[in-house]
Amino acid sequence: MVKKIPFDEKELEVVREIPSRYPGFPSTKVLNRPATAAENYHAFYFDKHPYWEPGLGGSDSAFFCPAVIPDNVARHFVYDSSTQDLMKENPNYDGIDMFGIKWQYVPTVGGSMEDPNYPHPLEDANDWEKVLKFPNIDEWDWEGSAKANENFLKPDTWNVIWMLNGAWFERLISFMGFENAVVALIDEDQQDALHALFEATTDLYCRIIDKVHKYYKNVHSVNVHDDWGSQQNPFFSMDTAMEMIVPHGQKLVKHIHDLGYAADLHSCGHNETRVEAYIAMGWDSWSPQPMNDTVKLYEEYGDKIAFGVNVPGVAMDASEEEQDKAAKEIADKFCVPGKVCTFRAAGPEFFQQQLYKYSRINFSK
Questions:
Q1: 197, burial (CB in 10 Å: exposed 0-12, middle 13-18, buried 19+)
Q2: Residue 126 bridge partners (DSSP)
Q3: 3-state secondary structure labels for all residues of the chain
Q4: What is the predicted pLDDT for the residue at 153?
Q5: Quick one: 109 exposed, middle or buried, by C-beta within 10 A (0-12, 13-18, 19+)?
Q6: CB 229 within 8 A of CB 269
Q7: Does position 341 have pLDDT exceeding 90, yes or no?
Q8: Average pLDDT of the residues in 201-219
Q9: DSSP 91
Q10: How far apart are CA 222 and CA 64, in angstroms?
Q11: Which residue has the higher pLDDT, 344 or 1?
């Protein structure tokens, strides 16, 4: 259980400033807090009772997307000790993922997609064993990556390793293209084969996470990608999600938990009506995109899964009285032991300090 430490005004003193490890991101002022960021996030995830609202920490958590996993290079999403050199050598880097799919970085949107000049390898899920070549992850230089990232993975920071492409629907899209992937989920002639494929990709992810556990110190959480919706609606029904994906997700989340990690889901889209499937899988947290009603999700399901909530900030020219009032109202609504969430709210430095203060007071009870 978390130790309840009363708030002290001395905590508002800035003890140091941390430069961002990511290009283009601002530095973070660190207050005189009663615990490390890693300890606070651990209390958030495993006790549902942090010392303060974790989202207010700025650089308290850090992505870890090591280049040793081919998908991270292919998807232009490397965040490790090699990031700066990689960006200098080739700002628009991309490449081939662990299954041999060629990806193409699109600078105008800041993201990547399967290279349209290369056809998707799979048309029918029944052919997956003949068509797909699974990677031999033992050939990847885990030891070299671990050594190179010893100083990148700070012990007092909550380090989250991201698993891009996922093991289920998002991965299936890369194999088949979107249209064929959606059809495969509901085609009775393909569903048995699709379950076998998802079983295989889930096992692969379990083995990759085993490598993470073996080689990297100071990794605390695993984030897995699986986008389920567009800006307006989910891609498939709740029944399809529960039948085709949830059982495999349960297996992966259990494995993550068995290794002592928190399990965080990244799932883009207007998927608020699928939250019960996410809960059934066992995810500890999900940060919905802004088109979802995150406040309503928190109110209805916040005791079952932690959300990233979109919280309104205050104007930069608001009076200190207005800032203090807004900060207390936000903290009283969202900083609740046993029903936690993360949020960041835009506003002046005094407002940020008051948010921290009131979250500390609430969580010290």
A1: buried
A2: none
A3: CCCCCCCCHHHHCEEEEECCCCCCCCCEEEECCCCCHHHHHHHHHHHCCCCCCHHHHCCCEEEEECCCCHHHHHCCCCECCCHHHHHHHCCCCCCECCCCCEEEEECCCCEEEECCCCCCCCCCHHHHHHHCCCCCHHHCCHHHHHHHCCCCCCCCCEEEEEECCCCCHHHHHHHHCHHHHHHHHHCHHHHHHHHHHHHHHHHHHHHHHHHHHHHCCCCCEEEEECCCECCCCECCCHHHHHHHHHHHHHHHHHHHHHCCCEEEEECCCCCHHHHHHHHHHCCCEECCCCCCCHHHHHHHHCCCCEEECCCCCCCCCCCHHHHHHHHHHHHHHHCECCECEECCCCCCHHHHHHHHHHHHHHHCC
A4: 96
A5: exposed
A6: yes
A7: yes
A8: 98
A9: T
A10: 10
A11: 344
Q: Where are the beta strands (DSSP E) in 215-324?
A: 221-225, 262-266, 285-286, 306-308
How many C-alpha atoms does 107 have within 13 Å on its Cβ side? 5
Amino acid letter, residue 204: L
Q: How many CB atoms sit inside 10 A of residue 151's CB?
A: 7
Domains and CATH numbers, the chain: 61-310 (3.20.20.210)
CB atoms within 10 A of CB 75: 24
Helix (H, G, I), strand (E, B), or coil: what is residue 104?
strand
Residues 6+ apart with CB under 8 A from 264: 160, 221, 222, 223, 224, 283, 284, 285, 286, 287
pTM, 2 dp: 0.95
- Of 19-28, 225-234, 237-246, 308-317, the poorest mean pLDDT is in 19-28
Question: Amino acid letter at 172?
Answer: L
Residue 38 pLDDT class (50, 70, 90 cuts) = very high
Looking at the chain, the whole-number percentage of residues with pLDDT higher than 90 is: 92
Q: Which two tokens stand for residue 97?
A: 């993922």
SS percent in the chain: helix, strand, coil, step 5: 45, 15, 40
Q: Which residues contact 23 (CB under 8 A, 6 or more apart)?
A: 83, 84, 87
Q: Which two tokens stand for residue 124?
A: 């029918």
Is 103 within 8 Å of 173 (Cβ atoms)? no
Beta carbons of 66 and 78 less than 8 angstroms apart: yes
